[in-house]
């Protein structure tokens, strides 16, 4: 399978590297085709690892991960091109974080009666956007080794088949427990959940934890 990865930061490199380890081809995309992080990553990971700009990565991938900073998501998706993403699954891990007076919050443009996941879907009506993995530390996204018990992988989107595909990706990433939250509007809650993760991380001083949905067995 060919994957496009939009973004070159820590999360993008973790996800892209895991995809390579799983045997896929990956193109990491950024604003410019010669982004230093992307070039170094591609050189390190062999012939199945490539780099390009957003549009090239979107066109390359049969599936695409949106891993840019949330406040730049719409801009990056416009650069990627609706035609390059048409009919494809977009795995969206973005949160519209802003920092003010030492506190994290969600950009007010993406709160109330909308959220970033919904706006990404509105921008790309012919793309199957599925929100997931925006509520956990980067190093736990593709490995939960060392945890006492599995944490829960939440996901949401409008297309049922696309969500099943993303569920399978989560399982490939080592998630033993997954939960379908519903349509893309449920991103409103995972984005808030993501912002709740930050102060807990600050208190714990570690990313090696996660949220678990505990069900009544009756």
Automatic annotation (TrEMBL):
Kindly give the Pfam families that the UniProt entry links to this protein.
F420_oxidored (PF03807)
InterPro entries tied to this protein: NAD(P)-bd_dom_sf, P5C_Rdtase_cat_N, STEAP_metalloreductase
| GO molecular function, a single term | oxidoreductase activity
Note whether Oxidoreductase occurs among the keywords.
yes
Matching SUPFAM superfamilies: NAD(P)-binding Rossmann-fold domains (SSF51735)
Q: Domain Pyrroline-5-carboxylate reductase catalytic N-terminal spans what residues? A: 2-96
Keyword terms, alphabetized: Oxidoreductase
Q: Which PANTHER family match?
A: DUDULIN-RELATED, REDUCTASE
Q: Specify the protein name.
A: Coenzyme F420-dependent NADP oxidoreductase
């Amino acid at each position: 399978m060919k994957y496009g990865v939009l973004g070159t930061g820590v999360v993008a490199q973790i996800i892209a590297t895991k995809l390579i380890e799983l045997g896929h081809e990956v193109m990491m995309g950024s604003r410019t085709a010669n982004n230093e992080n992307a070039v170094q990553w591609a050189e390190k990971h062999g012939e199945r690892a490539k780099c390009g700009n957003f549009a090239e990565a979107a066109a390359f991938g049969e599936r695409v991960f949106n891993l840019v900073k949330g406040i730049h998501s719409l801009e990056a998706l416009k650069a990627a091109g609706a035609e390059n993403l048409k009919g494809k699954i977009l795995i969206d891990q973005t949160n519209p974080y802003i920092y003010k007076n030492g506190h994290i919050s969600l950009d007010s443009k993406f709160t109330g009666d909308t959220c970033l996941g919904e706006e990404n879907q509105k921008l790309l009506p012919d793309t199957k956007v599925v929100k997931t993995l925006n509520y956990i530390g980067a190093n736990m996204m593709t490995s939960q080794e060392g945890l006492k018990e599995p944490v829960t992988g939440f996901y949401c989107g409008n297309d049922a088949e696309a969500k099943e595909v993303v569920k399978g990706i989560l399982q490939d990433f080592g998630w033993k427990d997954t939960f379908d939250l519903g349509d893309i509007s449920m991103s409103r809650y995972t984005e808030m959940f993501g912002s709740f993760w930050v102060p807990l991380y600050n208190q714990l001083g570690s990313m090696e934890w996660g949220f678990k949905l505990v069900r009544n067995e009756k």
